[in-house]
Amino acid sequence: MTKPATNTIAPFELLDIADADERRAALDRRRIPAFLRSHEAAAAHYVPDQALKDAIHVALAVGAPLLLTGEPGTGKTQVAYYLAQRFGLLENRLFPLFVRSTHTAEDLLYSFDAVGYLHAANDPARKGTKVTKGEFVTEGPLWQAYQADGPAVVLIDEIDKAPRDFPNDLLNVLDKHEFQCPERGPEPISRGDRPPPVVIITSNSERRLPEPFLRRCVFHHIALDEGLVERAVHAHTEVDFPDLGVELIEAALTCFWKLRQHDLRKPPATAELLVWLSVLAARPSTRPDDLQGRLIELPALSTLVKDRDDRSLLEQAQ
Predict the structure, then answer these.
(1) What is the domain count for the chain?
(2) 115-131 b/e with 16+ CB inside 10 Å = b?
(3) Which range marks the domain in which residue 302 is found?
(4) Fewer CB within 10 Å: C terminus or N terminus of the chain?
């Protein structure tokens, strides 16, 4: 087999390269679409509809957190990055907390290294030197936003993953926009007379949030409808897959909506669709006719269907 020329290797030819060194080098030269690598890169292509814009403006006007719900893949997290990009805050004034099941509300505010403090207090090398608890405090995303020189955006992503007490423990902070850190002294941590940071909270609605918490938020649900999908595809087409062609994109959208009509445990959302279109763009041999058969036979179906039972359901469908 003839070794492919360096500049003509397509993503779907990597495994077929005969020469091991060239195969390894080609793997290192892959170019992953920028919007797939980071929310920051995708922020410039995000297009909110008027209802979402209205909700954002309401939250900004009253200084309340904006709570976004919607199925995974509809762009909830991206809203925070869109706002940071829109207001020129992406570089150093966006402070995210990607919530895990072990997080508490204090992780949003600060953390105290009790073990480090005890070691330092009993360290012979520091004998005669005052060891303060404040040295072992690490500022959390909200604290960093309060200290920012100017406006800032705080993202609390997937709050429904947190323990049940997490939202309730934030009630006073969201009301007063200040909190205490006893390890640093009696003065409250706050923004003073400046407006509070923009707080974006996302939830996949895996469990109901407490009503007192909901009362303090501005709420908006991002529905996965044709408008959302068309805006997302249009925003990315020119930059990320300009050569797909109108007919192929329309055929892909038809397949996408057909998949969502099936009773899938995990139906594809906008995020999966954009990944699929990126794959189709990397396979220049794909034609609209290739998407006309059974859904189970779609190229790169693994980007759209992520559940074994869902694949079985599609295999049985006519």
Answers:
(1) 2
(2) eebeebeeeeeeeeeeb
(3) 224-316
(4) C
